[in-house]
């Protein structure tokens, strides 16, 4: 599908503030960027950085006192890979590429080590494969209430599980944690999400199954084949859309994503397994 | 200084086990590797992976049932950079290279977000620079008891702070957390440590000050200019010397580091500021 | 049923130690004490204290260096009240005697405030009454593994729930927490437990329903009509069988309970609702 | 000193609500109640309960939909015992009355077990006695920021310590926790506090030293000899001024305490040790 997407972020800077933004779509083979603009007002000097492993695009700006805004617009074509979930098996740890293994480790908000007994008890006995991760998403959807204000920037997956409530960030953290606890590599994904109401940045997760990364959204609030990746991280700590160091107040925020190819919003959500990243070349065996 | 160093790790494998090892010294300009051997018994197929950003060297092995061992030996020359601590200022966040900024974020065991009020109250008013991080190390050394068994693999910096006890891993986590909480990038370092008694893998941390990474060891148990880096991570989760997936029992472990140039053990420890990594080239400004 | 019961506790005192013991059976109308002896070796001065509200019998002893032991034996007749679980409704908070209300509050190990969302999600919709508390016990029995070593003296109900494992103390804490979270007063009970294998002090809980306290044992390891009460507390902190202040080592421990009326061990466990305490006289309305 | 004191509490009841209030001054020998009225509007049926051990006065009311208010006024004479802090020693555990010992145990918000290493490290070496508890209060006053909104109803002493911030409830919890961790019995006290600005219910703590309970206020915000006790508890959970079960909104709250004897507010705060409770008769030795 072809999308027009973007965001408008506005701030009132109270004291000089360094921002790291991560709002530009990722550079992926599956994602053709037909046009793209990013405007700063005022037009400050930009530092750009693309992480060598995950290809996240970070933008650093030092903003002075006064109003400051970021306007990002892109038109992109997303070509997803579809598969029958039944055909996707889990990859045994012994066969995992070594560069995938860090995504089995716990991270700040993905306390997979603390959730191992819980994950084993609920999901350890289920048939392995894409359908097991889907069962995890169903469990989260059925057992965790989507509730604004239920979490803050320090909330971890185990805390969300006890609170039985959270937002997309927390749903993704819990899903990621359960996967890692079961030996399935998993990572946090920020994205523009087609179909999400109300419009906002969205967080989902990917699990590594059968040789590639597959997308999962335990909130069930957007089209799985309409998730346009911004960043990839161990968890939300790494890919906030804006990380400010200084003193400022957000004064406006708008996120956009629409069909650019005239196609209507699908009436039903896909039940295919969806992937947007090419299978990674394995690290070399010697 | 020139060192002969290495380790011998032995296991009894009970069920097929995938290991990720991180025991080889890092590839650094300051660290000349004169010779190096790594022997597996039995001689299994190896998968190697060097992280593109931090240059950690990981080794993956699938071991079958029975005895299994790793023997690593290297002879290296470490050329450290020395400086007068008084001359090393802190780098304002606005001047930090963007690729350094992730080391301001909290991670699984470095709960810097939870420790911010504590760090500000204890160290917020101190003169900035290398000496502030040194004051943090002094505080840790004076207030945290070095005590085997005080922590386990899930212990976080805030928990260690309440327990007032830990091992080198925990000392490094607390130091890293306090630095990040104060806006000083910091990262966890595993190493061979000259002078450490009893001999073991050691954990210290680096803080980014005045344009480069400087070494700190809050345990004060080894020579700061005798720390030969193995790996760099956000925290201990990322650079365990061995991460096994399977069922096995460790049956032996020996770590070695000795002067190879005939020089005697220094009677006193250096009070210079010590760095072993070249200043990183900045990510590009546009 | 009539029981012979008791315990033998032995210690090696390394430095003068003050003990508080709570091993004597409670003074209850339903529990006739036919004979009872408590022997200290050496025969130290005893301080006795019965809590005015709950009637727990505490015994204080200051023991000097050397061996020290406690031997307790009693022959008792326990007359339980039985009822059909279907007939026991929950008491609305508005009808609860005011002296019962503290048992709705969270306590050190019964973190009912943290477990409220979990309790509401799992049990909030169930039919109210004795059968809801029984459903809680079934859930605990089915979802928490009985596992020695899974907890220590600082483990709370929310931690046990995440670990999915515990011992009788933890099963009772979780059950108590879920009840309080649902507005059902609940309290922790230590007891001699007929049928428990291996023999040990046991921990269960009572819920206040339909005007009186009813016994529940989520471990399902003893006869509900063979639980001879020692103490009642908000949680385990209050009624440890021995609380030592000093330096000592336990050197022996034996707990006993046998039928004293020649009756055989029942082949099946009762499915009646069981209570051993008279309905409390209400605090006075004015 | 003689005081006129009281409170006015107003609520809008949305659904039938059971309230437990604990706002009436305690029945103490040192506290003569010259007059006292408690008015409910509407004038609902009251259930009263005085705890047999601590003599807290609870009032239970079932309020229906609509406005509801409580008005309490009393005129009391408080006769405190004063002593030179230097003369007050700590009571060895072996000499503590057995009914005092529960105040050495951890409770929901007083996580003294978790704070033991911290307490020992900071205060373990200090001279024992009233002055050690005073040193604890000084430490709390100097190291914890008094900050509205820094805590909520689930915040524990260890959490407040990490946050380095709290309100009177948290200051009292930390003080209580440090005392218990050091083997000094301590309990939470709610009170009307002469000199407190702005006027509010206040929370302080008592430590058991040299045979009686002594008052401590780590916030240093009120006159220690002007604290008129309402309730005593293990921690805040037990003696909230209002515990509602139902659905309501607070619509007004006013707390009052003034000199009734014409005396002026003292210009300086007392530095005497202050106690308001008679030494308890010991539980009987046998």
TrEMBL record, chains A, B, C, D:
It comes from the Bacteria. Residues 160-220 form the Transglutaminase-like domain. InterPro entries: Bact_transglu_N_2, Papain-like_cys_pep_sf, Transglutaminase-like. SMART domains: TGc. This is Transglutaminase-like domain-containing protein. It comes from Methylorubrum suomiense.
